[in-house]
Amino acid sequence: MNLSVIGSQFWSLLLQGLALGLIYALISLGYTMVYGVLRLINFANSEVFMLGTFTTLYMQTKVFGFALTTPTIHGAKLIFVLISSLLASMLVCAVLAMLVEVVAYRRLRAKGASRLASLISAIGVSIVLLEAMGIVTGGRPKTAPRLLEKWSFGEIAGANFRIDTVLTIVAPVVIFIILERFVTKSRLGKSIRAVSMSEENSKLMGININKVITATFCIGGLTTGAAAFLYTTVYENTVFNVGFNIGIAAFTAAVLGGIGNLRGAFYGGIALGLVEQFASALIGSQWKSITVFLVLVIILLFKPSGLFGEAVQQTRT
Amino acid sequence: MTMEHKKTFNLRDRGAEVWAGWNRTTRSVFAVLLIGLVALLPFAGNWTPTSFLNTPITSYANVLVYPVGMFALMALGLNIVVGKSGLLDLGYVAFFAIGAYTDAILTTLFNWNTWEALPVGIGLAMVSGVVLGLPALRLRGDYLAIITLGFGEIVRIVALNLHITGGPNGIPGIPNPPKVFGLVFDLEHPQNFFWIVLTLILLVIWMVRRFTVRRPGRAWEAIRQDEDVAALMGVNTLVYKLWSFVIGAAVGGAAGVIYASKIIVISPDMFNFDVSILILACVVFGGIGNIWGVVVGASILAYLPERIRFIADARQLVFGLVLIIMMNLRPDGLLPRKKRENIAEKGGK
User: Fold this and answer.
1) So what CATH class is A8-315?
2) Closest A-chain CA to B156
3) Judging by beta carbons within 10 Å of its beta carbon (0-12, 13-18, 19+), is residue A288 exposed, middle or buried?
4) pTM score, whole prediction
C-alpha cells in the first residue's frame, strides 16, 4: 500500500480513470441497451468491440496505407483519416451487432426458448468471432500507426491533458448526450423504452418488436464501435482476445450502474475506471480486477440493483 | 395453455416410460450392464470396431479422464446450481481451482496423499461456496451471474499472485494418488483414473436423484419456477439456494483434487473463465436440469474438440458453430427435462 501516490498523482489518476471509464461506459451501452429490451446478457459484444479495433487498424494500415513508421499527420488530412476510421468502426460494429441478433437471438426468441439457451448461442457466436480473428491474425498482437501526435494542452496539478485523453473524455460525453436525447425524444427511442417496460404491451400498441430490437443492437454496436476507435487511438495496438477483459469490465460497469439503465452505464463506467486506476496505483495493477469486483460486491450488497437501479418488476426474469 | 398439447417424440420421456415399465431386477441388471459398458470405454480405442473413437494427439484413454469425465462430473455439479435451482453461476471454475490447489499444496508441501487431501479439498470448496453464496445469493439473476464471474476471476488472480501457489508458473511435481485395491495411478494407467472419476460421477448422480425426490429437490424446483411464490409458501429460499450452491461447489472441489493428482502440474491459466463457460455450455447443450442430458452434453462437448484436433486452429471455431446450430435447433438441449416441468414453466407466461 502506497498512500503517498494519492497525494502526488491524484489529479493525473483522476483524469486517466475518467478516460478509461468513459471507454467502458460506451461499451457497456452494448450490454445495457440490449439487456433493457431483451433481459439477456449480450455476450458477443466484447467480440464486436474486438472487431471494431481491427476495423480501425485496418482502415489506417490497409485502406489509407499508413505504415507503422509513418510520421504523424496533421490538419485536414488527420481529421479526415480519424473520422473515416471512426465511422468505419461504428458501421462494422453496428452491422455485426445486428448480425449477432439475427444469428444468436432471433430464432430462439421466436421459439420462446429459455434465457440460458440464448446465452449459450451468444457465447457460440462470441467463440466463432474470436477464433476466426485469431486465425486471421495468427494470434499475434497488431500495432496501429501513430497518426495522431500526442501533444498536450498543458498540465494542471500534475494531470497531463493530452489530446487523446481529452478526446476519450469529450467524445463519449457527446455521444451520451445525443443518445439520451434520442431515447427520450425520438419515436424510435420511445419505442425502445416501451419495449423495455413491457414487450406484450408494446406489441399491443402496434410497435414492431423485431425492428426495435434490431435498432437496439444497432445503437449498442455504434457506441461499441466508437469505443473501439478510441481504444485503438489511445493504446495503439490490439489483439484478437482484447475484448475479453474489456468486455467483462464493461459488463461490470453496466451492472454497477444498474443494468438496463442508460445513465447507470455512464456513471458505472466512470466509477469503474476510477476504481481501477486508483487501485492499480495503490496496491499494484495485478490486484486491480479484484478491487473492482470487491467494490461491485459491496455496492450490490447495499444497492441490490446497482447505483441507479431499475424498477423491481424489471429485475424479475 | 390447454391440456392437449402437441405430442411429439421425446427421447427423455420415452426412456422414462420404458424405465417405469421395468421391475426392480430388470432395472438393476440394466444399470449394472450400462455401468460395466461405460467402465470398459477406456479400452474401446484398442478394439477394432470401436477404434474410430480414438483421438489424435492426446491418447484416447486420457481424453476420457480429462476433459470428458471431468467435464461430465463438473457439469453434474453445476447442474445442481443452474439446472435444479435456477441460479446462473458463471464462475464455477473457482471451486475446481480451489480443489486443485488444495491438493497441490497439501501433497507437495505437507506430504499428504491425494485421498487425504480429497476431503479437505471438498471442504474448502464448500466453505468458499458459503463465503461467496451468503452475500451473492441475496441477489437475483444477472447480478448473481456477474458476482460469480468475478469470484472465478478473483480465485485465478489470487493464485497468479500468491507465493504459495507458485504464481504464474503454478505448482509442479504433484504426486499421483497412492494405490487403492491394487489399482496403480500413474501415466501408464489412465483407465484407473477414469474409474475414479466414473465412481464420483455415479455418486453425484445417486445423490442428485435422492435430493430431487426429497425436500431439498422440491424446494429447488419451487425456487427455480418462482422464487417469490416459494418464499411465500414457507420455503427458506436463502438456505436452500445456499445448499445447492455448496453441494455444487463440493462436486467442483472433488473434481479439482482428482484433476491435480492426474495432471501433475497445475497453473492459473488452466482455471480461466473459458472453463466456467464450457461447463455451463455442457449443461445447457445436453438439456438443463436433466442428469442424462447433462452427461451426454458434457461427453460430446468435451470429446468433440479432442476428436477434431487434426484441424488444429479451426477446432474451437467448429465448437462455436456447433453451439450456435444446436441451440437454434434444440433450445432445450439434446435431452430436455421432463415435459411436465416444461409446461409448468411456460404456463406462467
Assistant:
1) mainly alpha
2) A290
3) buried
4) 0.86
